[in-house]
Amino acid sequence: MSSLYQHGTLAMLMGKQMQGTASVAELLAHGDTGIGTFEGLDGEGIILDGKVYQALSNGQVVQVTDQDVLLPFVSVHFHEPTEVLPFSEVDFGTLSSKLEKFQLDNIFAAIKFHGKFSHVHTRVVAKQTIPFPSLLDVSKNQPEFHRDDVAGTLVGYYAPEIFNGPTAAGWHVHFLSDDKKFAGHVLDFSATEVDGTLQLFDDFIQHLPIDNAEFRDMSLDLDGLSSGIKASEGRKA
Amino acid sequence: MSSLYQHGTLAMLMGKQMQGTASVAELLAHGDTGIGTFEGLDGEGIILDGKVYQALSNGQVVQVTDQDVLLPFVSVHFHEPTEVLPFSEVDFGTLSSKLEKFQLDNIFAAIKFHGKFSHVHTRVVAKQTIPFPSLLDVSKNQPEFHRDDVAGTLVGYYAPEIFNGPTAAGWHVHFLSDDKKFAGHVLDFSATEVDGTLQLFDDFIQHLPIDNAEFRDMSLDLDGLSSGIKASEGRKA
């Protein structure tokens, strides 16, 4: 039995709360693998083997070694997989059906696999300044990237529909190439030579920055929240 | 900093998952204070000072000493309050406004207070048999009770709106009289001589029964979920 730890919520990003509220040191205390974003929505984060990488909106990727760098939203877990992926080829459109026997619908799970990607389509959110906009507004004008024939690792989570708001329901996955030069939030992909695992969680630990005054003051447009999250996080496939 | 631990979700009860999946022993490992319900929706649970009480739909209250009794849905925490309630009189209609300075909107909190209740209005769900119905159907025909001039303890939680589904957003509180003869899920109350506390949580730990086959198979009517929860849990005030 294992735990998925999440600092912040996706709803907070929709509610313009992009101030960093958890440090790299804090997130690494709760996992060695995961995904997130940085203060001011400064790119996409991917955590692999305890190392934190940041995909920037100019297309570059940097490794984050400063333990004090802050994040508003991040999900991490310790990589202790329970299942081996039962396929060698997959794309975003077939991922769920190829995992049907694991009955993910109502639970939290992590996926992590290495593969040869014939195509990866990513977005990388761009750094915002105060006063922060909503994630939905940011995502309407986001840098997107395409890369063909690239080897790399895809990592991320499946979350049940009822947790859309706290997090993104369905799949939310990021990519990092082996050469550490291409990364981002995955909108679409197609991969062969897939070698990876699935990890099922019985605990979802939602951590909230209760000492942050802006977060405590936040008012959310709940009517548009669910559809807004799907619009801002959704894959294009 | 402290944690609120929840086994199961309110959505599961809406999805007819009333089989018990956590034992009294398991819940007491995660808290000494809380609220819940029992296998088959057999009454309302209230946990105080590490003791578990069960309000039955015939109006009786029993103490549950068998550590193997099962629950499908329960929320618990260790009572380590952070704030003293700043009022001596309160009713359900004024509770939120009297706590406004604590800015509970976006966070999880526990409330626990003793008082003299001029009136308490409760419901106690009745035990269901397989095949289980939805909580919404059960709540449409639920035993309700009224008691005037009763001393007792109110305990329960505030949850942010975005967690409606995993749990009940807003206030979800249960009552137990000092003489342990009157208890239930609170629909309305009015109290004086209030003496109690508030506890703010930074972690909400959502535990799911991932080894339970019926839960894994569950399909939810998501369209009606949010309104259904409010209809089935909502206070009458």
From TrEMBL, chains A, B:
<protein>
    <recommendedName>
        <fullName>Alpha-acetolactate decarboxylase</fullName>
        <ecNumber>4.1.1.5</ecNumber>
    </recommendedName>
</protein>
<dbReference type="GO" id="GO:0047605">
    <property type="term" value="F:acetolactate decarboxylase activity"/>
</dbReference>
<dbReference type="InterPro" id="IPR005128">
    <property type="entry name" value="Acetolactate_a_deCO2ase"/>
</dbReference>
<dbReference type="GO" id="GO:0045151">
    <property type="term" value="P:acetoin biosynthetic process"/>
</dbReference>
<dbReference type="Pfam" id="PF03306">
    <property type="entry name" value="AAL_decarboxy"/>
</dbReference>
<comment type="pathway">
    <text>Polyol metabolism; (R,R)-butane-2,3-diol biosynthesis; (R,R)-butane-2,3-diol from pyruvate: step 2/3.</text>
</comment>
<keyword id="KW-0210">Decarboxylase</keyword>
<keyword id="KW-0456">Lyase</keyword>
<keyword id="KW-0005">Acetoin biosynthesis</keyword>
<comment type="similarity">
    <text>Belongs to the alpha-acetolactate decarboxylase family.</text>
</comment>
